[in-house]
Design brief:
Length: 184
Amino acid sequence: MQSLAESGEGRESRETNWWWDLLQSLVVAAVLALIIRAFLFTPFWIPSPSMEPTLYPGDRIIVNRLAYRLGDPRRGDVVVFHYPLDPSRDYIKRVIAVGGDTVEARNNVLYVNGQPQPPASYLPPGVVYSDFGPVKVPANSYFMMGDNRNNSADSRVWGTLDRRLVIGKAMLIFWPLNRLGLIR
């Protein structure tokens, strides 16, 4: 009789340990997920066509929050940032010029530091630039443009982007699966 009582207690103890182990595992997983999302990689959803044909409305992407902790955004990077006129909103655009550069468009040609920029492979056909600038980009700031330049509210509208508003570098499209791939 005593051995049956002991085995019942042992079973109860094993069940308690199983639930305790499961709870600990769930708490650790939740803490790790929060840390990864807050400091390493964050998913974002693309709501507008301003980055077509690189990104389409409904695309879901992963943003690397560490990318600019050790370095600065470079020309050509696709960056997610807090919108300068309403930091509660997040935007995504491409870096066209960095602090110290001068940007302007004349006669449908984009110039950075006086040099005409060749048509990039990521631009849709038929891009038309309205004349603007020249704009001198302040230190620790960036001139941002959407790839769909005919349909993008970007630095031509709201000015340059302060470095402090940068969230991270857009790295990967993970949804829809037929568009899975790195963002270039």
